[in-house]
Structures are given as structure tokens and as C-alpha cells.
Design brief:
The structure holds two protein chains of two kinds. By secondary structure, chain A is an all-alpha fold. Helices cover 73% and strands 3% of the residues of chain A. Chain A has a domain of 211 residues. Chain A has 21 helices and two strands. The longest helix of chain A is centred in the first third of the chain and has 34 residues. The radius of gyration of chain A is 23 Å and the shape is globular. Chain B is mainly alpha-helical. In chain B, a hairpin with a 2-residue loop joins strand 1 and strand 2. Chain B is globular and about 120 Å long. The mean pLDDT of chain B is 86. Classes of the chains: A mainly alpha, B mainly alpha.
């Protein structure tokens, strides 16, 4: 029992992979048993993350810490922990995976390797969110690529090879730049202090001088490609269209969040001055992405491509919120991430369900589905509304907080009141452009919804959703509303970590760096804290 | 006790919605309709109790804490004061009647319970809008009613056009909503709060803005939001199309309640508008222009519901003129009376359409007077009230607005009076075309009692509600107070001499009655006269009949252009430029490797040559050192 508690986080991370290994020993033909085992494995993992949520205290410190020396020569260690920034993304991962596994049809070709891949992927994703050592993070980060590569390449659509290669090259380009920057960072840290370490918390605040911008770009590019920020987004629609439904859900729901998480965890706090310097450019790209993604979504003829481009637009808000670097904006960015995972996840599931019935994803060929599928109608409606950010859904919370953040940062405080009132033009432009995206969201989503669901029924004898499909969508819908009605569900436990992040980025970017600085999060003795948390 | 009542008033329609959505399919239509109507009726009763308990106090009550992030706070809290109580009574009262009416009107519909679910959700959202204690919560209701409107307009979604109309309503509304939220952002940046009470206190020592400052910017943005929801120029185009929905929906959402949200919002934020005279003038101009334009369009429409729809737009214009004149009491009064008589007119038209098996073209009706006496009399009451013929509801409220307009400028009075004539003309045209003349070859019948009882009740309301807000000279004459303004606490600031007011009122009423008579005479009798008149003004008639081509203009300038842009972005920028570069880089790498692989010939002599070349290069490099 003691062992379990001490290594709770590690066990949670590796549990899915363990079940994946177990699947190897089950014969291919026992499809139901295979599904049963994998589903139970992921549900167990989810329950364990719920345990983490319960015991997580809302402080800024990293909790559930485990740290073991791994390659002492270079100061590499197995160092994991959870804080307010990673907590909900961690839970989102373990929340979506069981739904994906539940969705997998037992008749799927090559079922066994498919399930194994999903379980291994879950471990890699959980590990990425928990890793606090740069090398460990890099390993998990790259490990995610392999299952994803196979998922698109083997179970994908017609042009899967083009899509896989594009996806892989794009991502690897970013990863290699990150690796170079990572090594450089460790070397610089060594040359200043004489200590080799890849411990993230110790690397915070390393003075980098003129190199800071280059290193920042190395990290940021890898993450921004993954987000994806305009103009690095063209891999996304191809990957989505070719990926199987399960792959699309994981891709949109979790993998894209890796990029945002990387910015939160690495790019911003490691290189505060550089991030402050590039803010205007990144924000501009984010705003372009919001509008551009929306316009492109409007022009699409394929359901999946439409949802993929809408992701470009929605994650533009998340980038905007993050880079305005104030409490409201950063919170909004995190919430928008979660919300996008839920709403877009639901949308991709629904597209899959529609495809299963009609064997088409072309908007023009669909129509009148609402007549024969009332359940599908309601679920699709709610997911659509969450996507266009209707109040009381999670989408509203995310978008409104990001935009509020943008408004505050470039806000009108300090301007004179009365006759000589000045209106900050930049502020108005930000607001207007951001709002325009919300408006466009309504246009392309409702346009699509009308064409697919309304009108004369074009298909006969369509079956409404089965109970299993209802079971897949219901948790997503419940979460969408819960967050929309009571955002504190999320924001309460992330508050302090975000506060910490924002304050420190400001502090480091405004003062000249002195060494050694206080690090972000825990600097001192993680082990003792970890034990004290578990008592 | 009191807080308990607030929960009942707000949540009972929501409970009804949940029951309809989750259990609706399993309940019989009678039970389903009863539950739904009851849910709203309970809310009405609760509002009534609240009214008697709190008609002279104002307080807010927090249900739970909603947003609390950094310095950004907004609670889920409701405000109970005179303004919200009045709106609650109007909304829940009229909703109850329309729910009862719907049980008859929608009886044949297979999606009966879904309809009532939407309707209940609408009432909940409308109550949220009204009772909200801060702007963000108001925005929840604001968008929520838009959603219900979308769902109900496109309720018969198998018809492509109806689904399109629903979408159009939502999107046009969202344009307004976008401006509304910008206004909210600006308010928060400026005052650091969104609560009405704190906003009010922070504006207390401001003096009105002389130029177009930040506050004007805020009020203008909020007003643009109002033009979306309340169908004013330039965003009114969705409301006539919204008539695609079931008629009770048109009565409830698109006449009595939702579309008045913009007026309510301006009255709620009157302290802001009082500080921005420029925006007030903009509101007057927009309201007036909308009133006249839609009045002109209503003159020639053939569809009975379209006439009423443009009439609604026109009457909302009146309310905005009043709001722009800072006559908030008058605006709210006209809102209340309009809710009664316009809901009545719509329900009558619904009754007619029901009887005519879905026919909405007035030129195919006629002579229904004797077949449907209750509907006819109710429509007559509604028409008289709408025209502002004394002593019906519309007379008092319209006359108050006219008096305020005269106090501002005689020209404005002239324009409002002209609109009054238009109103009287088109509504009596509709009345005559529908009910007078010869009965066609149709089997029309009076509607069931579930539909006629609400008609009678609303007629009584229309007859009586006007007396709540007697204009000043009546008050002097009969020694009664203007109950309405007293209740709202907005003392009338109008200073006109008794004679002027009597004269204006008399002149206007006489003209209105004359117009009504002319229209009835013209359209009840010989159709040849009508045709002659039509030919005389054929150009104007075509313009009016085609709604001045505004929809076509919007479609061409905004929708088509934007969609072309979208296509361009996708095909030219995304596929050609960005992906071109990406694929270019990819193929560059491959071509380069193909090129380099040419060197790998496998012949020893070539490699030896390469080695030799390399050695020479190294030597040259060393020598240079």
C-alpha cells in the first residue's frame, strides 16, 4: 500500500502501457475480451487520475513528485509531478481515452494492435504532461509520435501515406529544433554553474543573454507547429481527414494540447524575456489564425476538414490568451484547451457516427438526418453550440476569458476620462478581430449543421444512436455544461499555478537576471514535499 | 420566503424544459402540454407574489458564484426591482396564455413535446435576461433566447427554407451580440465591474459626454447589440423571415418578449445613455427610420404574418425613439401595451391560418368575419389598439411617445404621427382583406377553446392595460396618477401645456381614425379600386413589396463576397501558397537527395577522383592559413 501511494503518479502513467502489454497475450480472435481488458485498463487509469484530482491541493507547488537519478553524468533524472497547469490536461487525457476505447468497434480490422497502440499512446501522453525533466519530456514527446504514425498510416483513409509523412515531417522538424535548443540550454547552464542538470525546475531562470531568443524559437516552433498556429497548420486537416475517428479524437482532444502545454511549461517560463519580445508577433499570428481558420472552415466541403479548420480558429484563442500573459488570459487559454478537447472530441465522434451510417463525410451529400435521428440531433446540436461558444457551455468560458485577458492587457485603464478620452486603437482591433472569429464560428458551424441535419431526409432507414454511442457522448456533454455553468470546477485548482507563472514571467522579464534565481514551482526538496502531501 | 420565490420563478420553466426533453416522448400530448403550461404559470404566480412583496424595494440575490478569476468577477445573481418585476409579469403572463394556445395550435405535430421543451427553455432564458444582476449574465439570457428563437423558427426543419430562416436569425443576431460583448469588455475595462448597481454608482458624478468619447463608444456598441435583438436598421432583416416558425412562437418571441430585450436593456442601463447625448440622438434617428421604413414595407405585404412582422419592427422603432428621448417610462409602457396587442394580433392570425389549413396569403382569404366571430372581434380589438385609437392600450402609450417627440422637435412629432397613419392603414388593410369581403370556397371554422380563450383574455388585457399609464392631462382631469410611471419611479419630465397636448392628441387621433376608415372601405369592397391605386404608384409599390431590396443587397455585398473570400483563402492561400511551400520544401529535400545520389556511382575510379579533389581543397585551405 505504501508503495502504491509513493509511486501513485508513476503507476497512473504506466498503467495503460501495462494493460497494453497484457493484451499481447490475448489471442486476436477474442475481440470482446480484448476490448473489455483495454477499456477497463483505461477506466482504472481514469479513476486513479480522479484520485490525483481529489488529493491535489490548489497550491502553486508541484505535487505527487517522484524523482530518481537516471543518467547522473548529465544530471538526467526520472522526475515527474503535477501542478495546476498540467492537472486538468492530465485528467482530460485519461478521460478521453476510455471514451475512444469504448467507441472502437469490435469489428475493427486488426483490433488487437489498434487497442495496444491506443494504450501505449495514453501512457506517452500522460508522461508528457507529468515529466519535469527535459530529457524525460523529450522522450515521452517523441514516443507519442510512433503510435500516432501507425494509427494514421495503417488505419487511415485513402491518402493516408501523404498525410502521415506530412504529419511526421512537420512534427519532427519542430522536435529536432527543440532538441538542439534543449542541449544548448543544458550546456549554457553547465557553463554558468558547473552543474549538469536537465531538471526543469533548476533550469528556470538560467541567464541566456543574446542566445535566449534563438533557444526560445527552437522550443516555441516545436510547440506552435503542434498547436497548430497559423501558418504552420496545414498538416492538421490532412492528418485529421485521413486518421480514423479514434485517431482524430485523440489528435484534436489531446495531442494538439501538447503544444499549448509546452508553451505553458517550457517556452514561456524558461525564456521570459524572449516570450515578452515576441508577444506582438505571436498574438498577431493568433488573431490571423482565428479569422483565417474560420474562413477556411466555411469553405470546406468535408465535415472532418471543417472541424479541423475550426480547431485552428479555436486554438488561436488559446494562443492569444496565453501570450497576453495576464491571469485572466492564461486561465482562459487553459480552459479553452480543455473545452476544445471536449467539444471537438465530441464533434469528431459524431462525424464518425454519421460516417458509419451514411458512408460519406461530404456535406453536400448529407442532409435531413434530424428527421430520423433525434438523439444524434441533440448531441450534435450541443457539440455545435459548445464549439461556437454559446454561454453556459465550456466554449464560452474559454473564449470569453481569452478575449477578456486580451482586453485587459491592452486595456483602457490609465487613459483619461472625459472630453479628451482616448480610445486605444490596438485594443479595439484585438477585440473586434477576436469577436469576429466568434461570429464566423456561428456562420460556418450553423451552415454545416443546417446542411447536414435539416432539409428533406436524403437517407432512408437511418438508425439513431445506439446506447453505446450515447454512452460515449454523454460524459463529454455533461462536462461541457458543467464547465460552462460552473467554471470554478477548473479554475479553482489552477489559480495559484497560473498566478505563479504570470508573476514570474513578468519578474524575470522586467528585472535583470541574477543567478541563482528562485525557480518557478518548487525549487527545494521535492521528495520531502511529496511525502508530506501523501500523508 | 422571498429568495425561495425567486428560485421558483426562474427555475420552474427550466424544470419544465428538462421534463419535456427527457420524458417528453413518453408522455401523452395532453399531459405534456399541461406540464409545460403549468411550469410557466407557476413562474407567473411566483412573479405575482414577488411583485406584491417587493414592488417598492430593490435588491439582488446571488444564486452562486460564477466567474471569479483574478479581478474578473461575475456572479449568477438576480436583481429584483420594479423594472425586472414588470418585465417578469409581462413575460410570464403572456407566455402562459401562449402556452395554452399552443396546446391547441400544435396538437397535430409529431414533435409536440420538443416544441414545448424549447418554449419552456425560452421562458427560462428570457427570465435570465430580465432578472440578471450583471451584464455577463444578461448576455447569457441574451444569447440563450437567440438560441431558442433559432430552434423554434427552424422547428419544421424538413423545409429547407425554414431551416435557413432560423440560421439567418441566429447569425444576424450574433452580429449584434458581438457588438454587445465588445461593449461589455469596454465597460469592464473602464469600471472594473459588470454589476448594474456598482455601474450606476460609478456614473453618479459623471457629467454628460460632449464629444464622442469612450462612454459613447460603449453605449453605441450596446445599442448595436440591441439593433440585432430588437430588429432595427441595419439588422432588422431576420425578423420578417422569422415568421417561418409556428405562429404562437412568432407571437411570443418575435412580437411580445424577446424582440423587446433591446429596449429593456437600454432602460436598464439608462444611466449610461443619459450621459451620452450623441448616442441618444443616433437611437432616435435609427428608431424613427426603422419605424417609417418597415411601416412602408408593411403596406404592401401579402402574407398576413409578414404584415404583423414589419409592424412589430415599426413599433419597436417607436420604443427606441422613446428610449432615445430619455422617456424610459414611455418606452416601457409602449413595450407592455405592445406585448398585449401584438401577441393578440399574432394569435388571431394563427387562428386564421389554422382555420385556413396553413394558408397565409391574405388575398386568398376574406369574409371570415362571420365564420370566426371570436377571432374577428379579437383581431379588431388588436387592430384598434395598434392604430392607437382611443381608448385602447396603444392609444395611451403611443400618445405619450408622440408628446415626448413634440417636446423634442415638431418634425419628430410629424414623423411619428406619419408612422401612426401608416400603421393604421396597413393593419386595417389586413383586417379587411382577411375578414371582410366575400367568403371564398373554403371550410373554415372557429378554433378550439384552447385557442380562443387566450384570445379573449388578451383582448381584455388590451382593453384595460392602457389605463395604467394615463397621460398627464388625463391625470389632471380625472385626478388619478399615472400608475405605471409611479411604479417604475421614472417621473415624467414632460412639460407641455394642456392645450397643446389636447390638440396634438386630437389631431393625430382624428387622422388615424380617418385612415383606418379609408383602408377598411378600400379593401373591403371592390378590388378594382385597389388595383387602380396600385398601378398609380406602381414603382413605389414594387419597391415596398420587395422590401426595398435590402435582403438582396446584404446578400450580394456581405454574404457572397465573404464566401468568395473564404474560397479564395482556401484554394489560393492555403493549398497553393502555404501547402505549396511545405510540399516544395519536402520535394526539395527529395530532389536534392536524388541529385546527390548521382554521385554514388559505385565506381572506384570516381571515388578516387573525389578523394583527390578533396585533398587538393584541404591543401589549398591549409596553405592559405
Amino acid at each position: 500500500m505504501d508503495l502504491l501511494l509513493k509511486h501513485f503518479l508513476s503507476i497512473t502513467i504506466f498503467l495503460p502501457a501495462l494493460f497494453g502489454l497484457f493484451l499481447f497475450f490475448i489471442p486476436q480472435s477474442k475481440t470482446r475480451f480484448l476490448k473489455f481488458v483495454s477499456l477497463n485498463g483505461s477506466i482504472l487509469t481514469f479513476l486513479m487520475t480522479l484520485g490525483i484530482l481529489c488529493y491535489f491541493t490548489g497550491t502553486a507547488e508541484v505535487q505527487f513528485v517522484e524523482k530518481y537519478s537516471w543518467i547522473p553524468l548529465f544530471g538526467v533524472s526520472y522526475f515527474i509531478g503535477i501542478d495546476g497547469l498540467s492537472l486538468y490536461l492530465f485528467i482530460l487525457t485519461s478521460f478521453l481515452t476510455p471514451l475512444v476505447l469504448l467507441y472502437v468497434s469490435p469489428e475493427e480490422k486488426k483490433l488487437k494492435p489498434f487497442l495496444i497502440l491506443i494504450l501505449f499512446l495514453e501512457t506517452a501522453m500522460l508522461g508528457t504532461f507529468a515529466a519535469l525533466d527535459l530529457i524525460l519530456f523529450y522522450i515521452f514527446w517523441e514516443a507519442m509520435l510512433i503510435p500516432m504514425y501507425f494509427m494514421i498510416g495503417v488505419w487511415g483513409g485513402e491518402e493516408r501515406l501523404y498525410a502521415t509523412i506530412k504529419f511526421l515531417l512537420y512534427t519532427i522538424l519542430g522536435s529536432f529544433l527543440m532538441l538542439v535548443a534543449l542541449i544548448a540550454l543544458v550546456m549554457i547552464h553547465h557553463s554558468t554553474t558547473g552543474v549538469f542538470t536537465t531538471n526543469l525546475l533548476k533550469l528556470y531562470g538560467t541567464p541566456l543573454g543574446s542566445l535566449e531568443m534563438w533557444l526560445f524559437l527552437g522550443f516555441a516552433l516545436a510547440f506552435l507547429i503542434k498547436v497548430p498556429l497559423f501558418p504552420f497548420h496545414t498538416w492538421l486537416p490532412d492528418a485529421h481527414v485521413q486518421a480514423p475517428t479514434e485517431g482524430s479524437v485523440i489528435l484534436a482532444g489531446i495531442l494538439l494540447k501538447m503544444g499549448m502545454y509546452g508553451l505553458f511549461r517550457f517556452a514561456l517560463p524558461l525564456f521570459p524575456q524572449a516570450s515578452m519580445a515576441v508577444t506582438p508577433y505571436v498574438v498577431t499570428l493568433a488573431l490571423i489564425g482565428i479569422i483565417y481558420g474560420a474562413f477556411l472552415a466555411w469553405a470546406q466541403k468535408d465535415l472532418k476538414k471543417l472541424v479541423a479548420y475550426s480547431s485552428v480558429s479555436h486554438l488561436g484563442y488559446a494562443v492569444l490568451g496565453l501570450f497576453v500573459l495576464n491571469h485572466t488570459g492564461v486561465t482562459g487559454s487553459l480552459v479553452q484547451n480543455i473545452s476544445h478537447g471536449l467539444a471537438t472530441g465530441a464533434l469528431f465522434f459524431i462525424v464518425g457516427m454519421i460516417y458509419k451510417r451514411t458512408h460519406t463525410k461530404k456535406i453536400e451529400e448529407l442532409g435531413g438526418l434530424a428527421s430520423s435521428c433525434p438523439k444524434l440531433f441533440f448531441f450534435f446540436l450541443i457539440a455545435t453550440l459548445a464549439s461556437i461558444g454559446l454561454p453556459l457551455t465550456s466554449g464560452f468560458v474559454g473564449e470569453i476569458l481569452c478575449l477578456f485577458g486580451a482586453f485587459q492587457e491592452y486595456g483602457v485603464q490609465g487613459f483619461a476620462w472625459g472630453g479628451e478620452t482616448l480610445i486605444n486603437i490596438r485594443n479595439i482591433i484585438f477585440g473586434t478581430v477576436g469577436i469576429l472569429g466568434v461570429l464566423m464560428g456561428a456562420i460556418y458551424m450553423l451552415n454545416m449543421f443546417q446542411k447536414v441535419m435539416f432539409g428533406k431526409p436524403k437517407f432512408e432507414d437511418l438508425k439513431d444512436l445506439e446506447w453505446k454511442e450515447v454512452l460515449v457522448l454523454t460524459p463529454l456533454i455533461i462536462m461541457i455544461f458543467s464547465i460552462g455553468v460552473y467554471p470554478k470546477l477548473l479554475t479553482n485548482k489552477m489559480e495559484n499555478s497560473i498566478d505563479h507563472l504570470v508573476k514570474n514571467v513578468y519578474k524575470y522579464s522586467l528585472t535583470t537576471l541574477s543567478f541563482p534565481p528562485e525557480a518557478l514551482g518548487t525549487s527545494g526538496n521535492p521528495e520531502s514535499e511529496a511525502t508530506s502531501k501523501k500523508d | 420566503m422571498s429568495s425561495y420565490l425567486i428560485y421558483v420563478a426562474l427555475l420552474s420553466p427550466f424544470l419544465g424544459f428538462l421534463i419535456q426533453i427527457f420524458l417528453g416522448g413518453k408522455l401523452s400530448k395532453t399531459i405534456s402540454g399541461t406540464i409545460s403550461s403549468l411550469a410557466v404559470f407557476v413562474s407567473f404566480l411566483a412573479s405575482l407574489f414577488l411583485f406584491f412583496e417587493f414592488h417598492n424595494v430593490s435588491f439582488s440575490h446571488t444564486l452562486f458564484s460564477w466567474f471569479d478569476i483574478g479581478d474578473f468577477k461575475a456572479d449568477f445573481s438576480v436583481k429584483i426591482d420594479q423594472l425586472s418585476l414588470l418585465m417578469m409579469l409581462v413575460v410570464t403572463g403572456i407566455s402562459t396564455l401562449i402556452h395554452i394556445y399552443s396546446t391547441g395550435y400544435m396538437h397535430e405535430d409529431p414533435l409536440f413535446s420538443r416544441y414545448f421543451g424549447y418554449l419552456n427553455l425560452f421562458v427560462f432564458m428570457m427570465l435570465t435576461l430580465i432578472m440578471a444582476d450583471n451584464l455577463l449574465l444578461m448576455f447569457v439570457g441574451w444569447e440563450g433566447v437567440g438560441l431558442c428563437s433559432y430552434l423554434l423558427i427552424g422547428f419544421w426543419f424538413e423545409d429547407d427554407f425554414k431551416a435557413f430562416c432560423g440560421k439567418k436569425a441566429f447569425i444576424v443576431n450574433r452580429i449584434g451580440d458581438a457588438a454587445f460583448i465588445l461593449g461589455i469588455f469596454l465597460i469592464f475595462s473602464l469600471f472594473g465591474t459588470l454589476e448594474f448597481e456598482s455601474l450606476y454608482t460609478s456614473t453618479l458624478n459623471r457629467s454628460p459626454e460632449m464629444g464622442f468619447g469612450l462612454l459613447s463608444c460603449i453605449t453605441l456598441f450596446l445599442f448595436i447589440g440591441a439593433t440585432g435583438k430588437s430588429a432595427q436598421i441595419p439588422l432588422y432583416v431576420w425578423l420578417p423571415d422569422a415568421m417561418a416558425g409556428p405562429t404562437p412562437v412568432s407571437a411570443l418571441i418575435h412580437a411580445a418578449t424577446m424582440v423587446t430585450a433591446g429596449v429593456y436593456m437600454i432602460c436598464r442601463l439608462s444611466f449610461f445613455y443619459d450621459l451620452t447625448p450623441i448616442v441618444q440622438n443616433i437611437i432616435i434617428v435609427i428608431g424613427m427610420a426603422t419605424a417609417i421604413l418597415s411601416g412602408l414595407i408593411a403596406l404592401t405585404q401579402k402574407d398576413i404574418k409578414k404584415v404583423l412582422a414589419y409592424s412589430t419592427v415599426s413599433q419597436l422603432g417607436y420604443m427606441f425613439v422613446a428610449a432615445g428621448l430619455a422617456a424610459y417610462g414611455a418606452a416601457m409602457f409602449h413595450l407592455t401595451t405592445h406585448a398585449f396587442f401584438k401577441a393578440l394580433l399574432f394569435l388571431c392570425s394563427g387562428s386564421v391560418i389554422h382555420a385556413m389549413n396553413g394558408e397565409q396569403d391574405m388575398f386568398k382569404m376574406g369574409g371570415l368575419k362571420n365564420v370566426m366571430p371570436i377571432t374577428y372581434l379579437s383581431f379588431l380589438v388588436g387592430a384598434l389598439a395598434l392604430s392607437g385609437i382611443p381608448p385602447l392600450a396603444g392609444f395611451f402609450s403611443k400618445d405619450t411617445i408622440l408628446a415626448f417627440a413634440f417636446a423634442k422637435s415638431p418634425l419628430l412629432w410629424g414623423l411619428t404621427a406619419f408612422t401612426a397613419l401608416l400603421t393604421s392603414f396597413y393593419i386595417f388593410r389586413a383586417l379587411s382583406l382577411t375578414f371582410h369581403g366575400k367568403l371564398g370556397n373554403i371550410h373554415a371554422h372557429e378554433s378550439p377553446s384552447s385557442m380562443t380563450v387566450p384570445l379573449v383574455l388578451l383582448s381584455c388585457g388590451t382593453l384595460l392595460v392602457g389605463f395604467l399609464g394615463l397621460p398627464p392631462m388625463f391625470s389632471h382631469l380625472f385626478h388619478v396618477e399615472n400608475l405605471f410611471e409611479k411604479f417604475l419611479g421614472w417621473e415624467s419630465s414632460l412639460h407641455l401645456s394642456g392645450q397643446t397636448e389636447w390638440f396634438l392628441m386630437g389631431a393625430c387621433s382624428a387622422l388615424v381614425i380617418l385612415t383606418a376608415y379609408t383602408a377598411t372601405k378600400l379593401f373591403s369592397g371592390d378590388k378594382a379600386k385597389v388595383t387602380a391605386l396600385k398601378n398609380k404608384f406602381s414603382k413605389l409599390h414594387t419597391l415596398s413589396e420587395n422590401k426595398f431590396y435590402v435582403d438582396e443587397f446584404y446578400d450580394l455585398v456581405f454574404v457572397k463576397t465573404a464566401h468568395k473570400k473564404a474560397q479564395f483563402f482556401w484554394e489560393k492561400i492555403d493549398i497553393f501558397v502555404i501547402d505549396g511551400i511545405v510540399n516544395g520544401v519536402g520535394s526539395l529535400g527529395r530532389n536534392l537527395s536524388i541529385l546527390l545520389s548521382l554521385i554514388q556511382t559505385g565506381r572506384v575510379i570516381n571515388y578516387a577522383f573525389m578523394m583527390f579533389l578533396g585533398m587538393i581543397l584541404i591543401l589549398l585551405y591549409l596553405v592559405k592559413l
